[in-house]
Structure formats: structure tokens, C-alpha cells
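no rush on this but wanted to send it before i forget. theres a chain ive been looking at and ive put its sequence and its fold in C-alpha cell form underneath. please have a look and point out which stretches look like helix strand or loop to you. thanks a lot i owe you, the record is right below:
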Amino acid sequence: MTQPFSADQTPDEIDFEPMTGELDLEDRKALRRVAGLSTELTDVTEVEYRALRLERVVLVGVWTEGTAEMAENSLRELALLAETAGSEVLEGLVQRRSRPDPATYIGSGKAAELRDIVISTGADTVICDGELAPSQLRHLEETVQVKVIDRTALILDIFAQHAKSREGKAQVELAQLNYLLPRLRGWGGNLSRQVGGRAAGGVGIGGRGPGETKIELDRRRIRTRMAKLRRQIADMSKARDTKRGERRRNAVPAVAIAGYTNAGKSSLLNRLTGAGVLVENALFATLDPTVRRAETPGGRAYTLADTVGFVRHLPHQLVEAFRSTLEEVTDAGLVLHVVDGSDPDPEAQLDAVREVLREIGAADIPELVVINKADAADELALARLQRREPHSVVISARTGLGVEELRAAVEAALPGLESELHALVPYDRGALVAQVHERGEVLKQEHVAEGTMLHARVPGDLAGELSPYEVLAPTV
């Protein structure tokens, strides 16, 4: 759980919970089956096997634009998403079309071919690389005769597995209900009219008119639950708003880590602050935001916030549900945009993240691109990225390569130190000197008979308090 930030705390006084990430990782990889429980029934083994067996999935995508390599990279990412959700990927298919088929996404003929592949591989699920309309899902499912889900449902499922905090679970549930609402379906009795009393027999008051179907009742219940979740999320976000307000009053600059999922954001947070959050080579391993205190090489304090990872075609439902969490980015003075330098297409990662930043209103915040995983990346690819992004730093959060250069770049890019001055502060104003150390950057300090001589860069309001003690710069 994120500790509240206090401007009076030093890094040694803050509880970083160093074992939290390791415990989370052990829990995710723990065996869920209880050994030693059995009966004499012969079919129990088969039942246990079915319960433990991973879903066997076939992936299918429609290539409408870009190059073949881009389409294949998108399907590879879908495979990683499926494996993160707990599936075994059997096949991956891409079809070239000018646009997805409005009925079955891939066309009736290709849907029949997909059915043959499902039968031959023994797959029990088809995952489509895109968000399908309710009618497309229904028609494709009727053709292939197995469960069909789309990319959005898959990402929502991963979020549901990884959400831990009360707010995170509420945000995921809201996104899932928002996705489910237009996709409700009913069979047989599920579509029957809802009536009561004597009206059930078709007589008396209530027996005339259309009534309310079961599916309409379900929709009403979902809307009621969504309204309740929105109220809960708004109430839970007040605590984060209070902490942000305290940091603003103390003029502590905020830095947000944003980037593609599995780019190494949590590893970078751990490297810079020792936060101890979960690190795993999986997509969307961490969802709950973590805010920690950090210091520049010059001793200036700032906050560092880790946020949820982004992905190509991030579901709009998630952006809306996680808007309160993403406010950590919109309120930041600097965004560390982390990109995986070893990815086959890092430029697409940069574009996908910036698209989401534009959607949440954070496109104008100063950005420092952090090219991570330099130890695993190709040198030519790194050089190409640096040419494309001149304001960037190459690092490896795993080995520590380039981290000191990153600290220096963050210090240079932090906002709020617009006034550089020389001041002679009397010794009885020691609290003012402490504020300069806490909120500004002390370039030089010297103790003389009259008081403390400071050469510092400070925020505008603090410069006003120091103005009575300001002196001319000493001549060399």
C-alpha cells in the first residue's frame, strides 16, 4: 500500500515495503491445487484435469493497414496477452482485408476455415485481435462452435486477475460492466416477460402490455451497479487528491512514469526509489499506482509515480474507469516515457502511449523518453530511437546502466525553479534555509558571521520570502 508522502520525511524514514513485489510474484506463481485430497470415484482425476488445464486458444487477426510485419507484431502481442491471461496458444492466423467483415469479422468463408482449424487443433477458444461488435461475436461463435472473445475482453480479464486494491477492483469491474452492457444475450426463458401475482397466468392487472424482459432487467441492474461503482471510485480518489494537494502546497514537483506495458516502469521505480513493487516479465503485471519519494543528485526532493501500462488499442472502457488513477500523469510536471528498446517495433509503442496521453489531456506535459532494456537491445535500434527522440536517455533498469545520467536529466527537467538568487539569511531564520534545501536547489552555501550565504534556485513564492535577504552576487 502506498505510504502517504510528507515533505518532512527523509528517504530513510519512508517505509518502502521492500518485500511486497517478491511476495506478490510468489503468490501469482503459487500452485492453486491442494494435494492429498482424493476419493474413490474414478472420474475425479478427469474433473481435476479439466479444472487445471489451460485454455487452448487460436488467434485470428485482420490486417487492414500497414506492413505485414506490423500485423504479425500485433498478433505476437496478442499471444503474449493470451499467455498472461493463462492460455496455451496453438495457432495464429492473419487475414488481409480492406476492412473487417461486418458480419463475422473475417468473412463467412474464412470463418468456415477457422472452424476446421479449431477442430483439428482441439482448441476451445478463439481470440480476435480487435474489438468486435456484439453481432460479430455472435455470428462467429455460431460458425466456429467454440467460445469467441475479442482483444478488449482479453485485456479486461488480465486486469481482473491482477487488480489487488479496492479501488483497482472497482475500476476493473466498472470497465467490465461497461463492456458487457451492449453484449448481453438471452436464450429461451431468459427473454420471457417478467410479471407477478395473478398476472403470471395472463389475467388481471399486469398481464397486458409488453412488460419487462429478463434482459431488460439485467441491463437495469448493471446500470445501477455501474452508478454505485462510479460513486465508490469518486470517494476513494479523494484520498489521492488530498495527498496531491499536500504535495502542491509544499511545492514538491511530481514526476510520473508512463509507458507501454512490460517496458520496465516498475523496475525503474524500484531502481530510483527502492520501492519494492512487483516486477514480472508479463503484460499488465502491476495496475495499482505507486507514489514514492525520490531525490535528485543535488538533493532536491520530488515524487515519482508509477502508473498502469498502456497498449495498442487500449480499451476505451479502461481509460474511462482508470481516469482517477491516470490523473497522477495529468497532474505531473514531468513524464518519464519508458519504452522497451529491445521491442521489435518501439516506435509503435511510443505512438500508442502518446495517443492515450492525448486522450487523458496530458499531451502538453514535458516529456523525457527513457529507452529501457539497453542490455538486451540492438545498438542500431537504440541509435535509431535516439535520432527519432533527441530528448531521451538510454538505460537498463535491471543492470543500472545509464541511471545516473537519467537522474541528472530529471534534475535538469524538473519544473518550478524559476528564480536563481544570492541571499544572506540570518541565523535566526534557519527554517527558511531548511525550506531552500527542501524545495529548491542549493548551488553553494557558506556560513559567515552575519548568517548563511546561499546561492540557490528556488520557486517563485520562496524567492519572495528570500527577497529581504537578497544580496548581489559576489565577484570572483
Observations:
- The CA atoms of residues 426 and 451 lie 4 Å apart.
- The radius of gyration is 28 Å.
